[in-house]
Amino acid sequence: MSGEKDKDKSKVHKLSLKGSSKLVAEFFNYSINTILFQRGVYPAEDFSAVKKYGLTMLVSSDDQVKAYIKKIMSQLDKWMVGGKISKLVVVITDKETGEHVERWQFDVQIFNKSSKSKSSKRSVAEKENAAPDAAAAPAAQPEKTEKEIQDEIQSIFRQITASVTFLPQLDGDCTFNVLVYADADSDVPMEWGDSDAKEIVNGEKVQLRSFSTSNHRVDTLVSYRLAD
Fold this sequence. Notes:
Helix content is 30%, strand content 31%.
């Protein structure tokens, strides 16, 4: 009986912090896959279609890529629920030159969070201390329906898909890395090492849409190297 009661409550009341964290982590999972597909980092035949957010999403069916993303997501889930994440970055790098050619940045704001702890940068193979965040966290946002949140997420994925119209074509073989910016006091797995920010040198930047729940706001920005 209590289970049913809780279920009813969750429909009426705003998304819990845990529910919101799960939603943001899931969004990151689909974002990484969508970027890899849309930017041709892996062949189209390495992806399979799934329905999500009222859209047809493409996710990698390559075992190595799936294992890498799964490793990121299992850690990300813990950090998101703990309120430790401030940023997730997907960097596409030219295998031959080692040059970073594209950088997708997702900034995470957590509402009603104290900003005492310093931030640091991390990826599955990377971690680096960054400056403390001076600004206080914004107050909680008005409640939204699940549909309103889904509509905002849909808009971001439509923009990522449409970005191929302005982003330069990626030449040659590319690879990708994921950086996660987490609080300095976060528990970091042994296999995560130091990293720089992997910025695009003299790159162009385009701000894409954002989405928010009553607990989180995620802003999307893509930086890219101008075609020679």
